[in-house]
Design a protein that fits this description.
2 copies of one chain form a homodimer. By secondary structure, chain A is an all-alpha fold. Chain A contains 11 helices and no strands. Chain A binds a DNA duplex through helix 1 and helix 3.
Chain lengths: ~240, ~240
DNA sequence: AGAGAATTTTATCCTTGATAAAATTTTATC
DNA sequence: GATAAAATTTTATCAAGGATAAAATTCTCT
């Protein structure tokens, strides 16, 4: 009962746990929430179902672990990266997200699906709250950088602006994670929302810069993507 | 086989169907998605499970019907209501939502949970798309009213602004539907987001009006929590 | 009233989350 | 190195929930 020991047993457990989480992400990212069931997960990881319970916990805990993974990963990989230009620094959240999403789509898509699922399930989860608190803080510090550079008037409470950006950012992430659009469209949307929000409290020169950037974003591939995939859904036996 | 007949049979079926949907809403609004299972639903409505399949369809169709209900209800109850003031007209979406949410919380909460669930489930649903397309259109026409009144500069594509407002609006609705905050907080958030977005492209005088309104909104406490955890650096100056 | 159509119910299947108890593997002690 | 104890994995099984076929019932129309 040596608690410190990095024993064979402990190492194997960690390895199995890692495999389980990796497979959970793969299943989630590929087939969405409904594709993640404990039997398939166990089989994919080469263990049996009760082992999942032993190594991770109930299904909710699996999702929680997937969601928690993204936070540590992101915190580790997000450089402090103080850009010279405060606008670029502020936009860094979006640019970084875009890069990460493009590099490891499976990882982030899975994490996002997990988060959205957990958030929907009644209870409050500290992990989920922490993730968005982290995004919110980044947004707010971006705002602060702009304010310090004299680019922002200061008529609107920064917290309120940060909250707005965070809300719309989350929706943009959702759209990507759910497969409504690709990562480029995600970047366009998130960056556009960000610039527009900044415009709301921007000094005149800064505002001109922002509107120019917004015009650039709107570029070629139009939108209309998300809401037009209207495949007629036949209602059975629905006589009106 | 008279299709037109408003026969006893048809009338009873409609009545049962109505009871089923009403009970579905009740179960959803009270216990969230997990509380809505077909057996309980059938029992609550005084029928058996296969009857649900006959009158409505599979579980997904029940959710779809609940979601669809909100659109017809809202379209019916939303007056054309051209306010004298274009700002008020633009904000009408939020004010109307607030009123409806307060009047029939069960109905709207259920519809929202249904929509969010459907949206998460991989497939595209025309009903869901239509609901948010409708919101987006209202937002855009509000913007148009402001533009026609000369309150908006026109540097930012209205569609992009409308999309931003719609995204954040949806998140605010979510928060209310999931019980993260009450209807007053919902109104504050949604209205605040709306005003900030308008600020982004507002003529100077209009912008002053908006920031004043924003300051008014921020008013009294409520709850800090929600999801952001942002500590406000309260900008209190600018009282004018 | 009675034939035939439409609807509801009875009975049952299958998937999936969850867990107790047995079997196995690892650790610690002599 | 053998063996007892502890920890972990597996076998077997339950219960809940979505879904459906087939029987029973109700309604319509002549």
């Amino acid at each position: 009962m040596n608690a410190l020991a990095d024993s064979v047993r402990t190492r194997n457990m960690q390895k199995r746990r890692g495999r389980l989480l990796a497979e959970a992400r793969r299943l989630l990212a590929r087939g969405g929430y409904e594709a993640l069931n404990l039997r398939d997960l166990a089989q994919a990881a080469g263990v049996t179902v009760p082992t999942i319970y032993n190594l991770i916990g109930r299904k909710e805990d699996v999702l929680l672990a997937v969601a928690a993974g993204v936070l540590s990963e992101v915190e580790a990989r997000t450089a402090p990266a103080r850009a010279a230009d405060p606008l670029d620094q502020a936009a860094a959240v979006v640019e970084t997200s875009t890069r990460l999403f493009a590099e490891e789509p499976e990882f982030y898509r899975a994490a996002f699906l997990a988060v959205e699922w957990l958030d929907q399930g009644g209870q409050h989860h500290a992990e989920v709250a922490r993730i968005y608190a982290w995004v919110g803080d980044l947004m707010e510090s971006g705002l602060a950088a702009c304010r310090d550079a004299g680019l922002i008037v200061g008529d609107i409470p920064p917290a309120q602006m940060a909250a707005l950006i965070t809300r719309s950012f989350r929706m943009s992430c959702r759209g990507w994670a759910f497969g409504h659009y690709d990562v480029d469209e995600f970047r366009r949307l998130a960056l556009g929302d960000f610039y527009i929000t900044l415009c709301a409290d921007a000094v005149e020169t800064f505002r001109r810069r922002l509107t120019r950037r917004i015009a650039t974003l709107a570029a070629p591939a139009a939108q209309a993507s998300t809401s037009t995939g209207l495949r007629a859904q036949v209602h059975r036996g629905e006589s009106q």
